[in-house]
Write a structure and sequence with these properties.
- This is SRPBCC family protein.
- It holds the Pfam family Polyketide_cyc2.
- InterPro entries: Polyketide_cyclase/dehydratase, START-like_dom_sf.
- It is a single chain.
- The protein is α+β, with helices and mostly antiparallel strands and 155 residues long.
- The chain has one domain: 2-Layer Sandwich (Alpha-D-Glucose-1,6-Bisphosphate, Chain A, domain 4).
- It is built from four helices and seven strands; from the N terminus they run βααββββββαα.
- It has a seven-stranded antiparallel beta sheet.
- α1 packs across α4.
- The longest helix is centred in the C-terminal third of the chain and has 24 residues.
- The chain is globular and about 45 Å long.
Length: 155
């Protein structure tokens, strides 16, 4: 069962590095714990990463720790990688666009075209301060993630 369709969350950043460099980072999904303030560890099943690759993420917020199971649902080399979270139905993606000046516009997006699972919605309300507050927190986390990727790509 699903709740209503959740709003799309999206953040972008311009990185002064060529798309191939940025792609080498974001397509290695095992690195998520280096960038995301919520992901503690990612276990990737199968390499190289491509369409159908599965992962388990261990997420943390304060004393709360929870796993999520994901599968890569879109994989276009040097353009986009997207994975669907089995537990809540959301799709997270990174999309790369040439900025026209030798750099890369990197966009992180969270969409929920099939809505959010009822269990995820209820747990978010009870344990994470409510859906609206958690969406603000996710947006903050996306900006932190993109800034950390930028620092690594430009470093």
């Amino acid at each position: 069962m699903t709740d209503t369709v959740a709003p799309v969350l999206e953040e972008s950043i311009t990185i002064q590095a060529p798309p191939d460099r940025v792609w080498s980072l974001v397509s290695d999904l095992g690195r998520m714990s280096r960038w995301s303030p919520q992901v503690v560890k990612t276990f990737v099943r199968g390499r190289p990463i491509g369409l159908g690759t599965t992962m388990v993420n261990i997420n943390r917020r304060g004393v709360l720790v929870w796993p999520t199971r994901t599968r890569v649902v879109r994989f276009e080399p040097r353009e986009e990688v997207a994975f669907r979270v089995k537990d809540n139905f959301t799709i997270w993606s990174f999309r790369l666009t040439h900025d026209g000046a030798g750099g890369t516009l990197l966009t992180q997006r969270r969409e929920a075209p099939d809505g959010i699972s009822d269990i995820s919605h209820k747990l978010t309300d009870r344990l994470l301060g409510g859906v609206a507050a958690f969406q603000v927190e996710l947006g903050d986390g996306m900006r932190q993630t993109l800034a950390r990727i930028k620092a690594e790509a430009e470093g």
